[in-house]
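My current task is to audit a protein record that another person submitted. Please read both lines and tell me whether the tokens look consistent with the sequence. Do not assume that whoever made the record got everything right. I have pasted the whole thing underneath without changing anything:

===
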Amino acid sequence: MQLVDKDLISIQETRLLLRNAKDAQVKLGQMSQTEIDKICEAIKNAGLQNSEKLAKSANEETGFGVYEDKIIKNYFASQVVYDSIKDMKTVGIVNVDKGKKLYEVAVPVGVVAGLIPSTNPTSTVIYKTLISIKSGNSIVFSPHPSAKKCIIETVKVIKEAAVAAGMPGDCIGCVTEITMEGTNELLKNENTSLILATGGEAMVKAAYSSGNPAIGVGPGNGPAFIEKSANIPLAVKQIIDSKTFDNGVICASEQSIIVEKESENSVLKELKKQGCYILSSEEKKHLEKIMLTPKLTMNPKIVGKKASYIAGMAGVNVPEDTKVLIGVESSVGHKIPFSREKLCPILAFYVEDDWTKACKRAIEILSNEGAGHTMIIHSRNEERIREFALKKPVSRLLVNTPGALGGIGATTNLAPALTLGCGAIGGSATSDNISPLNLLNLRRVAYGIKELDEIRNIVDCKCKNHSKKKSTEEAEMDRTIENRLELVTDLIFEKLKNQLNI
């Protein structure tokens, strides 16, 4: 019987891809480190050779971002990620401690389910493929429907290169008939070993409630605090660089600026000087009407669009070359659009009396949305930086660097990654920038170093010493109590004597 129902076709395709990927992973898991590394190099090269073509296809299909910046992201996902993982030991014995008579063996998890967002589609495919294959796992992708063509094309390009380098063909797969039922099957199928979820909050929650192990990321909503000791022109430049890079679609990009009252005028002046537009209160109200959907989620029509385009949608006239729209804000909440995540060139602007109140405001913003993700501080005061490091509910505190590029490890020494864990506070299984080491288990091989009799002797000795010590302490306490009672009794008798004039 031929299937004609789209949902059934999607489910069947997903099941077949997972089954084949599981069989292929067994073969991949038997390969040497050298063979695995050769495949990874081929994937990297394919990503680099096709970076411009894939960037243009992503931009044309989704309408998000800037294709030139997507070329950079494809380069990052290919070359930079590859350079960071190429020397990792991920096959066989990876750690040895001769002194403790202990060694560790890398064990692949199996089949990874890779959920791909529309904001960073081609780069995320390259990145997730590299870290999965490097750790000996196969991967099956579920594309976002609005980026289906460019994702399928990316999978095709890197799969051909990987197979030519010796990879079993079914180690990389991609669902082509995309439905909610098919995605649900990918998440819950018994052949799925681990879900690597990058995307919207609802999708990440579905991954964690699937019954299969999952690594997901929550929303970003990182505030940037420009502390009064900062190099203000440089801080503003870095924030603008970050917020305009691919039109702000990277979730680690800044979502608000916080300044102290004494720095307000200097920062606003610099923002204007460098091409930002400060909205009037009336213009801000117009913009707020288009930033959220009726369900209070981010309006997809503003995602990855230019500042002037978004302003035009709201009926606000700004110069065509405007870089970022700035709205002065004083509130935080689910219904306050400027205090929420905005994957486009829009920033909230908060003014606080001093750094302690700025600290509280940052926590308020993150607690409302973005807990566990990223925050940025611009400062030359190490004491203030440490104060923020100790108190902020984030997994990454970035110092004097653009948020988007610093968070993913392009301008910092964080592990290069396009999936950023948010830790327990953000509902994630890890706070790491996800690497191959998050996609394998370690089998510990431990040699015996003592016998049960030795343990018994140690315990008996410790218990006897403790008991003896306790007895001594109790005896000392008893003597103290007796002395105190004797003293109290003497005092009472002395008082009675005086009262009776004896």
